[in-house]
């Protein structure tokens, strides 16, 4: 996930004033450059040459980022982001239906541009999910009340959710609660990286970094009411997170938002984490005792 400087925040909406956090619409264009039917000619140019032509076609406007997302013998697909949804419409008009003429290449390349849709679960997906999955060995109460109420976040910058005035850049559960209770009362919060044993429990690395050096974290947020969960999901659809500093400068980053499919706050999952943590704590205590015995033995030999 990348972090970008925001030059136009006119479409940003306030999420939490105390943390200077906003939601900014993702403005993205999918651009297909179609090759002529005689595909052997496509070897005469590169995707970077085509990208440069696209940039020239939208001048003086610019993409904030543009990348190749797919390259086949029939077409090259680009994804271009812009500052605002308004600008995306302008760029679409400049590109869609146009042709690219390359030097020393006799055939035109046709350009098709469409506004990209957010990769985000639909209400139908989260509403039907409990009916699709296998029944798990949990108590009946949890099975019958199994409607989505928990959101999983990935790629949240730690520094943006740290306690103000503290030297720590670790995210705070209290800050996370304040930010996302704008959608409704929160029942449970879990930030795995704050648990010193969780990394060993999941067998992976909970520390992630954005391009630009900001450390990020994942979080689970469970709402008390289904209506609050729905409000949060609908509000976060197609959005990126924006931070506005005291100097007025703003940064934005993409974040992954989806509904929790792991039953993270179920009794079974909580019990499993508690038992795994207890086992790791016991192993840690045993290592400390072993180290102490070794030090005492070394000292005894030294003074004997």
From TrEMBL:
UniProt-annotated stretches for the region Disordered: 281-304
GO terms assigned for molecular function: kinase activity; RNA binding
UniProt name for this protein: A kinase (PRKA) anchor protein 17B
Keyword GTP-binding on entry: no
InterPro entries referenced in this protein's UniProt entry, alphabetically: AK17A/B (IPR056852), Nucleotide-bd_a/b_plait_sf (IPR012677), RBD_domain_sf (IPR035979), RRM_dom (IPR000504)
Keyword line: Kinase, RNA-binding, Transferase
UniProt domain RRM: residue ranges: 149-258
Keyword Kinase included in the entry's annotation: yes
